[in-house]
Amino acid sequence: MAANVHSQSLGKKSKRKQALSTLIVYLILGLLLLIIAAPIIFAFLKSTQTSQQVLQYPPLLTIEKNMKANFKAAWSQYGLNQMMVNSAFIAVIGATGKIITALLGALAFVYFDFPAKNFWFFFVLLTLMLPIPVIIVPLFNVMAGFKWVNTYWAVTVPYFASATGIFLFQQHFMSIPPSIVDAARMDGIGPIGFLTKILVPMSANVVGAMVVIQFIYLWNEYLWPLIVIVEPHRQVVQVGLKVLSGGGAQGVTNWGVVMAGALIVALPPLVILIVLHEYFMAGVGLADEK
Amino acid sequence: MDSKFPGKVLPYIFLLPTIIVCGMFIYYPAAMTFRASMYQSLFFGAREKFVGFQNFTRLFTSPDYLRSLRITIFFAILVVAIGLSLSFMIAVLLNRKLRAAKALRISLVWPYALSPAVAGTIWLFLFNPHSGLVNYFLDTVANIKPDWFSNPKLALTMLVVTAVWNNFGYNLVFFLAGLQNISDSFVEAAEVDGAGFWVQLRHIIIPLISPTTFFLLVININYAFFDTVGMVDVMTKGGPANATNLLIYQLYKDGFQNFNSGLAAAQSLILFLFVVGLTLVQFRTTGRMVHYGG
Question: Which residues pair with A286 in a beta bridge?
Fold first, then answer.
């Protein structure tokens, strides 16, 4: 089904021309993949070099023997280990909370009739216009009022609502044939049983996409934890990474350790994306088959 | 049977967590932002005084804030213009049946998983004037080694490059998907009429891909306005001489370093206006996305 612009003109072209153009496309593609990956490759090479080797000019672009020491320094000496645990905890709890509340919300919107339904739908949808930076100063004051500053409550509970999630699940639930609900009701299955036994298994793609989107979103949050978490050992790893680079271009920054740190921080969301990428593509409407 | 479950209370119980979180942690602070924008905080926030619209007049008469506004809009335009045109051109080039199309998608889209802070950290070293790869390349090709961190224009360029890289694969994958959805019959009809590649591009491909373009426009502007705070904090801290002081970074500094919450709240409301505008575009275009989505 994949339509494209060029295929139908191929009949007119000679086979040699066609092969040549395919070759060119693959060359461009290869170059492109290399350019996109170059920063990560560079970071990896540098993470294997000693503090002298990283600063050599022209840049030394080989794998050296200092990898273990660099990763160890980033991991334990600069405290990334504790912050990785913090970030993992926050991202897992936050994403789980978002997905559960979104499933329950979509269940209410699609499978129930209740007063003021449209009002509440817009109530949820309009939160899309209020990202955290727009409300950040009073939100901090709310946290102070709850005595939640410098706690994990502050970096999880405010995320336990997802307009995107409710919207994605709602769209998907509406595409499920109503006869399935009727059959479930005949069998005497209640709403919660219907959600867990029928809807969730039928929504694997959307749940998978939500796991990817929300885990990456929460893992990568920067501004809110920077403000609301005070003690370094409770901080998230995104903010912690700044401690390694010293926040500047000059100084005695050990770039081998910094690059090792950047790779450590990048790894969890990358693994989630790569493992679940088919769900992600389907969930954001990029896959050919549903 | 109407395929609904009975009960008027149960749906509210299901919605309750969402309603509570939205109310307490989004709408209440949003209302308080309006209020706070009318007050000036004194003694590092210990007391406050009603000042009406003074925070806004102060912002719009402050050369620093106006400069930050200009820089942010300029930055967003560059990120969008360069990022989208580059990814669109490459998408057109790559738009054909390729083997391993699925593997190709993931090998393009992965930088989406990297935070602006991680991207910023890696590019911070790539742009290192003495031992970074960028200057080695420029030195080899053009015999120059600019200092990216002390020149205002270069510092902003550096952020643009990092932001474009961070979003490039994501943009490209969406453009490719959009191109694949353009029906063969349009293109065939054009070919029968003898339309060449450029005519096809202008009159068929660009109009038909516009829902994707609008969608990516919103995503990229949003990124440029809000997600870049980690990148700026890691790479430039708003310097040199406030040349990369994007609005979101200025808001962070005024609210949480200078503890001027009234001024920060006024800045939040200005950002809110940008979001409202963007959301209107998004609602309009997602409606069209549904129409086109195969």
Answer: none
Q: What domains are there in chain A, each with its CATH number?
A: 15-68 (no CATH), 73-283 (1.10.3720.10)
Cross-chain CB nearest to A108 (options B11, B127, B248): B11
Give the whole-angstrom CA distance, residue A29 versus residue B107: 11
Q: Which of B115, B119, B216, B109 is nearest to B158 (CA)?
A: B119
ipTM metric: 0.90
Which 3 state secondary structure label does DSSP give A247? coil
Phi, psi of A113 (to 5 degrees): -110, 130
**Per-residue pLDDT tens over the stretch A159-173:** 999 998 999 899 999
- Mode of pairing for the β-strands spanning B39-42 and B47-50: antiparallel
CB atoms within 10 A of CB A228: 21
- Phi first, then psi, for residue B172 (nearest 5°) are -60, -45
User: Which B residues, 179 through 238, put their C-beta within 8 Å of a C-beta on chain A?
Assistant: 179-184, 187-188, 191, 200, 205, 226, 229-230, 233-234, 237
Question: Do residue A245 and residue B114 have CB atoms under 8 angstroms apart?
Answer: no
The DSSP call for residue B227 is I
Which position has the token pair 């191929």? A10
Report d(CA B213, CA B205) in Å as an integer: 11
Nearest-Cα distance to chain B for A17, in Å, is: 15
Predicted confidence band of residue B1 (pLDDT cuts 50, 70, 90): very low
B273 at interface of A, judged by CB pairs closer than 8 A: no
Chain B residue nearest residue A246, CA to CA: B234
* Whole-prediction pTM: 0.91
Quote the pLDDT of residue A228: 96
List domains and CATH numbers for chain B.
60-292 (1.10.3720.10)
Which residue in B has a C-alpha nearest to residue A111's C-alpha? B4
Residue with tokens 């559960």: A100
Q: Using an 8 Å CB-CB cutoff, list chain A residues near B122.
A: 39-40, 42-43, 259, 262
CA dihedral defined by A278, B164, A130, A171, rounded to 10 degrees?
-20
Chain B contact set for A153 (CB, 8 A): none
